[in-house]
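Note on ligand handling. Small-molecule inputs were canonicalized before submission; formal charges were left as drawn, and no protonation-state enumeration was performed. Where a ligand contained multiple stereocentres, the stereochemistry in the source SMILES was retained. For 2-oxoglutaric acid, this procedure yielded the string shown in the input block below.
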Amino acid sequence: MSSTLKTAAPTPISRPPARPQPFPGLPEGVLLWQEYLSRAEQEAMVEDVRAAITQAPLFRGTMPKTGKPLGLQMSNLGDLGWFADRSGYRYVPTHPKTGAPWPAILPSLMALWQTLGDYPAPPEACLVNYYGPENKLSLHQDMDELDVHAPILSVSLGDQALYRLGGLARKDKTQSFRLNSGDVLVLTGPARMRFHGVDRIYPGTSTLLKQPGRINLTLRRVNLPPD
Ligand SMILES: O=C(O)CCC(=O)C(=O)O
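Structure output:
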């Protein structure tokens, strides 16, 4: 009896595109994707942010206790925007100077949240921070959001920044690393409430913006998602 070995037609293997891995060795929940955005994506994002801030111009909030102006100029995108004045730090639905609602969060940022945020509800706020060459941001926790389980996702555009990452208490040891244009950093899970800040900007390290400086965009979920 002759037997014929029948071979099945090979099944095509489809693999999802390789997902870039975050930078190794950072504490749990601190996810850094270095130069995740291509130059063209960064340029498009800067153009979109510029268009948004013609509607919602940069402004300086004031520190609640002292009434002194904050160091950074800022604006917001989204249903809610972060704001500070003598009444405290909080999220508000309209621009403090124009009274208009904030422009919508860019679709490109929404897509980043979907891909890297790993959270079922969308962000409600995107804080736009503008750092001039001399600006810094002191060590702080992001604690004005009701939903502290949602990640904070931040995008760096322009000159390098020296980022300082602390622990869950202000006095905890800190570590520092540079953030480059196109980097995406997520603080999530056990790292969501870590102290962090920016110690300095390195002017002239990027040609993305027309002038020396840096834009940082942070996506935040403010309210608890509906059940
Ligand atoms: O500029 C950065 O990279 C950090 C911004 C930040 O910590 C904040 O907006 O709370």
